[in-house]
Write the structure tokens for this entry.
Amino acid sequence: MATIRALFACILLASFMPGNAFAQACESLATLKWLLGAWRAQDERSTTHESWDQVSPKTFEGQAEVVQRRSGETEGLETLRLVEMSGVVYYIAKVGHNDLPVAFRALECSDTGATFDNPEHDFPKRLVYRLEGGDRLTVEVSDGGSKGFSLEFLRQ
């Protein structure tokens, strides 16, 4: 019993330390400022650019673009937005093949990551952003299970 209490005390103390990486309810965009700026992911086929700007205390606007490396043609373009409303953060994506934007609710966020979820959407259902070392960003796009892909971005 003493061991369990000691473990609980350590977890409780760590959750109040500055810069903790423990995920928590995402109630404010202030927790996600690490996402602001320009990011680039590249593989042998394409280059993906994603950028985020803060346009108000409760709104970040972003854009994602996939460009084919060989031809230089834009393969995909998304307009993105993070919005804080009534103590909840939403990730809203407008892609060319959907008539309407798709909203994902932030389940949790910290100073190094965020998880967004929309179980009603066909694909993706979940987006997970993880900051690694301050200049690397991993984005996992999935169905919430085994189907999906990851992008490895570097800060520009």
